[in-house]
Amino acid sequence: MINQSRGDPFLNIQNNQRQTALHLAVIMEQPQVVERLLKAGCDPRLVDDSGNTALHIACKSGSLSSFGVLTQVCPTYLPSILTTPNYSGLNCLHLACIHSFLSLVESLLSLGADIDAQEQCNGRTALHLAVDLQNLELVRLLVAKGADVNSLTYGGYSPYHLTYGRQNTEIQLQLYVLTSQDLRDLPESESEDSDWEVQSEDDQMYDDIRVVGHK
Question: What average pLDDT score do residues 4-8 get?
């Protein structure tokens, strides 16, 4: 049926959750179907009702095989997809970081993802998210890849600021050494409300994400 529909707008029909066949193939872990759909003309830029492209879903679920197909078969669309935030303000790199898929983080960076891109809720970068998650391995990876340790959230908080009151002293010590001296003290303002939540309307399809930062 896919071959018979090559180039047909039918391939991009969306269901009531605005998912295309491509979204569903990624969700069902069917990389061969993903490849056939793409080669038949399915548009990888289309988003579901949460603003996720098929690549966003692959990064969120950790689907390495579907990720590989999506990034290799349609490289023309890749730059725009990598910079596209979903309706929660998260791009593909943010999702891979939140779910601690380090191999996908490395792959995204090698493909040109902006390591210092800010999520649109509070302005956190991937490094801020890694600190929030207290993921030392991810922090080390991002720092090694050139993440800006002095990047500030919309409230003026550096990644180091988010280590205050947190348990992982290794993360705090590593960032203390790298952070500019004038960014080591907390800003003289009300504490940033760094509790934020990313929720999908489809609880069966996507888990709620809750990342708790410095309060």
Answer: 59
